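Loading example: each entry is read as three labelled lines plus one structure line.
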Amino acid sequence: MQLNRGAVGGAHGRGAPDGMQLRCRERELVAQLHELLFPSTTPSAAGSSMSWSASSANLSLEHCSLPPVKTPASCGKRRGKGSKRVREGQPQQEQKQRGGGCSTATKAARGRRRKEGTPTTTIVTTVPDFDGYQWKKYGQKHIEAAQYPRSYYRCTNSMDQACPAKRTVQRNDDGDGDGDGGPPKYTVVYISEHSCKAAEAVAAPVILETTVVRTKTPDTAAVFPGSSSAVSTGTQPSATSGITWSGCTVAGANPTPSERGDCSSLFAVVHGDCCWEWDPAPTSFQEMDFAGPIMSPVHVAATDGSWISDLFVNESPFVLNSCQLFGF
DNA sequence: TTGATTTGACCTCC
DNA sequence: GGAGGTCAAATCAA
């Protein structure tokens, strides 16, 4: 299955004359994607207050046999460069026996290739680091015939909760972003299912607490100036202007209760069986709350009828924590 | 000090 | 033997 971003990608852009119709189309695609990704948790599209979409970030689904990615993940922090491992002077015999202290199971697992039949999900996305889980990188490998190395991640709960979930992320050769002008694409393979509490804690694939911050009074003609927009997780609220993900609070412009509502009421809701609208319609508050499913890639309706994901794609730089979201 | 990342070595499968 | 996958020491930023 391939979600045709082209059919919708430019639609929710600012000032698209047929944006409503295209939004409908996008919503259909979202429903399809969600159905594929989360067959057991997919709510009725028409009855859902969901307003996330994956189409804007070139997410295509090749095969799905896994439960969803869920809660927001902080983008892996880029730290300093690693180092070469110096093992001079270590007896070769000892090196050969490295891991000799490991359990039999550990030794057996080392380097073992995936079994046939291991449940995997393969997606192509422009935002591999923002898939709803927290991952710990444990390796990187240059893959033969691949232009870019493959990174190996395991769930951060793999140790304390024995969560078997892993994933590999590899940048696509043809998605370098300099050919068609689009962001680089990454093939993400999810291996095994999450068994950790973090996965069970959230029944629906949602980001429960998010906040979109505007540092300027919303201007329907100039939303989220790209030059100063950034995205960060709640643990690291952005100190700069732009969009931040944070707790479900409203701040900034002293919104009235009616302006604020509750977190979910500020979320775009479905009207009829077609289109999203804001409820309540945002007026002058500077910070908007969302409580709803915002999956990777992020896609949220903005007050002016455009889409934040659109802004992500079309404006730069957008940063997720310290990571460049779309790489341009 | 802690914990994430890097990266070459090692292990297993084909 | 080659390639994919994993380990774990070294490194560095918070």
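The two ends of chain A are 27 Å apart (CA to CA).
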